[in-house]
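B., you asked whether I could sanity-check this one before it goes into the benchmark set. Here's the sequence:
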Amino acid sequence: MDESARLYLDLLKKCLTFALWEETLLMPFDTAKASAPGDLVEFDMGLRKLGYCLAREFPYRREIAWEGEGITYLGYTMIGMKRLANFQECIERAIEENTPGDILETGVWRGGACILARAVLKVRRVCERKVWLADSFQGLPPPNAEKYPLDQGDDLYLNPFLRVPVEVVQENFRRFGLLDDQVCFLKGWFKDTLPTAPVDRLCVLRLDGDLYESTLDALTALYDKVSINGFVIIDDYDGKGCRQAVTDFRHTRGIRDEIIPIDQHGAFWRRTR
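And here's what the prediction gave me:
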């Protein structure tokens, strides 16, 4: 890779994580929340008539962009620079070593990681591989605690911040000049879409489904499509349910490939057989 391509991808990662802007963020007060105190709502409504509004201050936290710790309000991904770099490295190794297959991520939020994946293919002039984004594009499913007890009590499905429509993700790709026919979307719950996904082979499979159920559904449907020497990345490996799903699947399938930590959250392995 030449220097200009390297600089472009480094700059892109910093843009996707919102790492370039180290200033305090002001977010308008959300008066639509049922928990909002009535007096604040009334005060905010009065301010808005004058062209102002109440805002909450969010001081810059380096660990959000660089370590993937916490929520980014203006970034395109929450996985941080380390996990983005790992994703890039896996894709580049697959290309350099001619490992066959496409790239697929389950659970894409605003699409940031896959925007990077498409950019890597672009700078390396790879035209025969695709980037697949699998997501409900309406947030996480309610946990099926009866079938998957480790997901009991998980309330991420209630968080509207995680619900990003597919049209918004497509527009994010368009903003970076990377929306084309090499970018494909699989819309729906994993249990419904992944078993019949029109994907033949994968060189990199990246899972970011948080829950035991989501992780197991993705591995069950897609692992056999991962090429030998391909990569499997688990974004939420630090999560109890996700880790147990990986452990159970690997035990059932007799997988002994070494699991390598990426940071305090994610891990990956390379398929050897």
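One thing to flag: The mean pLDDT is 91. Otherwise nothing jumped out at me.
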